[in-house]
Amino acid sequence: MSSVGIVTPQAYRFTEALPLQSGASIADYTLMVETYGTLNADRSNAVLVCHALNASHHVAGYYADQPKNIGWWDNMVGPGKPLDTNKFFVIGINNLGSCFGSTGPMHINPATGKQYGADFPVVTVEDWVRAQARVADEMGITQFAAVMGGSLGGMQALAWSILFPERLRHCVVIASTPKLSTQNIAFNDVARQAILTDPDFHGGDFYAHKVVPKNGLRVARMIGHITYLSNDDMAEKFGRELKTGDYQFGYGVEFEIESYLRYQGDKFSDYFDANTYLLITKALDYFDPAREHGGDLSKALAVTKAQFLLASFTTDWRFSPERSREIVKALVDNRRTVSYAEIDAPHGHDAFLLDDARYLNFIAAYYNRIAQEFA
Predict the structure, then answer these.
(1) What distance in Å separates the CA atoms of residue 135 and residue 128, rounded to the nearest whole number?
(2) Which Gene3D superfamilies match (predicted)?
(3) Coil, strand or helix: which one is 332?
(4) Residue 288 annotated as part of some ligand binding site
(5) What is the pLDDT of residues 216-245, one digit of tens each?
(6) pTM beyond cutoff 0.85
């Protein structure tokens, strides 16, 4: 197996307004896109990979001027990898409102000539999916072989199967959920409050003040990161190890876990946008396709036509296996073809990004079967 190598992102600009679920709309926006592999003659081998909270269109490979900037799912996508770019044409799209090149709060609002800041409209998973469909239209792709995602990306894949049932043959949902639990919404709100109450936030218009609400971003990332790991994984990696070997009887960094979380928070605050964090966590909170059907997920998924693959991880307490089983049951209620694996892995929610052989082999076997459809 090897890397897809050097990749170059492309900008897709759209002038036609995109109606949003909130009732607002956004026009004259750009979406950043990367592709890997070759689109076949009848355009039947395209796979859309949807990204999670702090990821982007940069799914695999690396940039010529940034060889260490490796795609966030590089172990999944590439020649000979589970999503094999010798067989599939893989597309990554940076979502609207993100901070990796697609139009977001830090960009200029053409209506005012100033940065959007707090005026950038709230977006939903469904809004992202409709924007992604426009990219597919531009590429001449009327139907994907598969739409795939993990975590928040899995929500987008599920939304694709509902909003555009004819436009995907397979839906791959990993470590995801049909809606956030109350506890998850609570974690998101605490993280947002850390940003909103940072004195440098300035109501979302911190760009004009030439500051960044770093303290809020650090705390938000630390809260999030705790939820991505399992208790056992944290205990094995860090335990109660002290940096200096003894208590310092103060409030600085003493335990190794504290040092790790602060490192993650500092790194995150250097590259991620605070307004984007607010937008994306709200999109997470709002996703609930069963809401319009009286809470009945089976009714919500009745319109689907795709075949499905779902995977969950035993120690993922943020998007637990029970939530994937809810999706499986609703699909079985509708007599859809479903493959499901519940993988015993110690790494918590982050397991979907890691190199677990059972997990990667399961995905590879599924994509090998899809490849036979257009071989």
Answers:
(1) 11
(2) 1.10.1740.110, alpha/beta hydrolase
(3) helix
(4) no
(5) 999 999 999 898 888 888 888 899 999 888
(6) yes
Residues ≥6 apart with Cβ < 8 Å to 364: 81, 82, 84
Structure tokens at 320: 């637990």
User: What whole-number distance in Å separates Cα of residue 122 and Cα of residue 254?
Assistant: 39
Is 225 marked active-site?
Answer: no
Of 329, 339, 265, 277, the residue nearest 299 (C-alpha): 329
Backbone φ, ψ for residue 83 (5° rounding): -100, 90
pLDDT at 1: 66
Structural tokens at position 180: 């956030």
Q: Which residue in 170, 316, 324, 356 is the catalytic one?
A: 316
The DSSP letter of residue 245 is S
H or E element in which residue 300 lies: helix 297-300
CA-to-CA distance for 356 and 346, rounded, in angstroms?
A: 10
Give me the catalytic one of 3, 56, 151, 176: 151
Closest to 117 measured CA to CA, from 125, 107, 128: 107
221 annotated among ligand-binding-site residues: yes
Q: Which of 51, 57, 58, 349 is catalytic?
A: 349
Is 266 labeled as catalytic in the residue annotation?
no
